[in-house]
Model the fold of this input.
Amino acid sequence: MATSLFGRDILDVQSISDEEVRLIMDTAARYERAMDNGGRLLNMSGRTLATLFYEPSTRTRLSFEVAMLRLGGTVISVADGQVSSSAKKGETLYDTGKMMESYADVTVIRHPVTGSAAELAAGSSKPVINGGDGAGQHPTQALLDLYTIIKEQGKVEGLTICLAGDLKNGRTVHSGAALLARMGVNFIFTAPDALAMPDKITKDLIAAGIKVDVIPDLDEAVAKSDVLYMTRIQQERFDDPAEYERLKTSFEVTNDTVKKAKKNMTIMHPLPRVTEIKVEVDDYKGAAYFRQAANGVPVRMALLSLVTGCE
Ligand code: NCD
Done:
């Protein structure tokens, strides 16, 4: 059955309706159950996914690729587009999009420039999925984050979610804030002044009636949060290396931090982590970041199959 997501690009979270979000969550849960039961899925047999990555990635690229393989499809991939693709010769993303539509049924792109996924999508008549465009958006991460919160906490509505770390440059928190706001959460923003959430995002949330508390102290924030969503200080987005050095260890979650937490707090992180969550915290039962990364597979299976009409 073709749903409203058939043929669609996934460029940001704003253009996915609440009903479509529910469909993605339900489809992902169905695939997860099928994989748990050892089922062999062939929904995307004969279809091809292209992954075009112009920025480093471990999880996003590989989880999209394994999602496609688990659906019986095939994958073509450029893992280091900045050096090995025709971008190096000056080809535009629009022209690359024209090529992709004849090579692949769906393309995932990651690129350092905000808006680049939209440029590729303008050239391609086949669906394009944004796997992260600079400090812009990372919609598929937001969806797998939502899926993770539902699994870990059993609900989303009414939760207090602390977004912590580099809220200025982190695309996962930009997409995540916009998506979770629609689910009736309250936010705490915890960041150094220089890395605060962009004003426009905060103002839009407040205008939409969302409760947003800015609490710069991590321990204080943790005591009030149901979910702590830590992020990496985004070194590659800094113009001044000295500024990065000054801010890189702004927050570190340790076992002491966890002791101050609200009971049953879930700790998430899109990964990769650097020093912001100590390895000792991995044993805490609410440390969900590796489970979160694993959830990327069924959620991306859902997205790939829904946009190609193969669900
Ligand atoms: C994130 C990204 O690329 O934005 N990684 C990911 O996709 N899981 C987070 C980060 O790089 O800090």
Q: What stands out?
A: The pocket of N-carbamoyl-L-aspartate is lined by residues 59-60, 132, 138, 141, 171-172, 231-232, 270-271 (CB under 6 Å). Strands lie at 48-53, 74-78, 106-111, 128-133, 160-164, 186-190, 212-214, 227-230, 266-268. The chain has two domains: 18-137+296-307, 139-293. The chain has a mean pLDDT of 97.
